[in-house]
């Protein structure tokens, strides 16, 4: 009741014939309810007496004038219709509605552009990471190739060493044999 203004909510309800002129007069003009909160409370009491139809009219007026409260109350996003605005408030109301919609769309576009820029920045970072990882992969492949060549060289050197040891052993035996013969 603190956030709602009964002067905004009563015209639509009266148009829907949920409240009559006397109820509207009681809510808006009576000195019994000096502050807006009391007037809103009285309007809610009247609507409660009207049953389901009063509840539906209340939700429809909330949907137009207080979309954040409508979402909070129902958990749904408001679906505003221009024909309702034209019937209720005329061209000025439609202009105000359209300006509100333009503002909302601009904010949505702005947030979408920010999100897009964030995603592009993230994409650039990921692209740089990918390039760095590719460079590291090439370096690792080169290191692996060098390691493989060194292993092959080591195996070839080991085989050569064994061959030379055998040859040296054979020479030493022959030398020993020749020494013995002499």
Task: Considering the chains and any ligands shown, give keywords for the structure.
single chain; 182 residues; mainly alpha; Death Domain, Fas
What is the number of E strands?
Answer: 0
**How many whole angstroms does the radius of gyration measure?**
44 Å
Distance between the termini: 128 Å
* Range of helix content: over 70%
Organism: Neovison vison
Domain CARD: 1-77
InterPro entries: CARD, DEATH-like_dom_sf
GO molecular function: CARD domain binding
Describe this structure in words.
The chain is an all-alpha fold and 182 residues long. The protein has a domain at 1-81: Death Domain, Fas (Orthogonal Bundle), CATH 1.10.533.10. It has helices at 6-15, 21-29, 36-49, 52-65, 67-74, 82-181. The longest helix has 100 residues, at 82-181. The chain is rod-shaped. The protein starts with 5 loop residues before the first helix and ends with a helix. InterPro entries: CARD, DEATH-like_dom_sf.
